[in-house]
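pasting for the record
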Amino acid sequence: MKIIPALCAVLFVFVENAWADQVVETYDGRQVLLGDDGTYKFLGGEQKPDSKYKQVSITDLKLDIESMRGQAIETAARATSVGGMVMLSDPTQVFDSNPVSTDSEKLSGSDRQYLLTKCNLGCKITVRGVIKEVLFRGGIELHELVY
């Protein structure tokens, strides 16, 4: 008879832990506390962008790209990889007739592979790089992708 209360206690511990809050890590390294009540909270305080790159919207980038040469920027865009070239466009538009040209030579092999395999029809990503001349006009020398 003493075994039944002991088994109930052990079972209670396992069941209680099954509904406990859990900490998980996102693909970009941030930690998230998942509450047993369906809520979540990012851990580590407010998430700050990498200070090396200035966040710029794709629209502002298109408007001011010539005056931004040499600046390190970060922008969210739709990337399309065609024939070894990567073009960035506004992710909110179905068709953007004014894409931004890029130079992807400095990307890691895994980032170039991602562009080649996942972005041939377009994909939404965040890019980081430096504004420079690409194809005889302002463009972005890509340094890294966040996807």
